Amino acid sequence: SLSELVDGIAADGHGLVMLMGKGGVGKTTLAAAVAVELAHRGLPVHLTTSDPAAHLAETLHGSLDNLTVSRIDPHAETERYRQEVLRTKGAKLDAQGRALLEEDLRSPCTEEIAVFQAFSRIIREAGEKFVVMDTAPTGHTLLLLDATGAYHREVARMLDAKGAHYMTPMMQLQDARRTKVLLVTLAETTPVLEAANLQDDLRRAGIEPWAWVINNSVAAARPHSPLLRQRAKNELREVEKVATTHARRYAVVPLLSEEPVGVSRLLELAGRETEPA
Questions:
Q1: What is the CATH number of the domain that holds 152?
Q2: Per-residue pLDDT tens over the stretch 96-109
């Protein structure tokens, strides 16, 4: 169950937990459920999202001791970064130089740098608390990982020669003691295949997913209707595939009869008893 995965996460006392997967598989809800369960156990948690479409505040529908919630807003971060560069680099430039700098800052990679900086700032907190991150859908996440990898190579190139000690965000993501990646999917052929492809991409970047979470499972909801029971039967083949081929550890989260909104429903999702569908 998800509760057992949370036991494994909680044992470390702090760290980064990243939920990754395609859009529409329930990452935001599960990130909120993991964060709420950790906070409920008295552990300090920062729940954050880099998904522009996520509505964490609506999912939580309330507050909880030990839990901070934030969102990486690409537009706000880009503007903050632009102002900072203009204030520092732009201060000594003449009007023409400043105009060129402003033009540079309008390029698409400015947003990537700004979001990466915000991401780096937040994951540094995982040294003393839990940071639970609901990531943007797969494509955006891979772009962020590309930026993280490029930054790591640049730092390594400069500091290796000096023999300096350093820890880049990429090294943090690759360190299984510091970071746990949860791949979120559904018990259907295409979502499982997509999650397996994402796992391959992560492994190529030196990041080993810690667990898979199969969300919205009809089989786990123990349905009574013949139609749903047939669907549940079809799911078992995919669950078996995840268990035997793809995942080191996994949890199956049942489809709930209503949207899990609010702290008590999220705690239920994290492993409390649920009603049959």
A1: 3.40.50.300
A2: 999 999 998 988 88
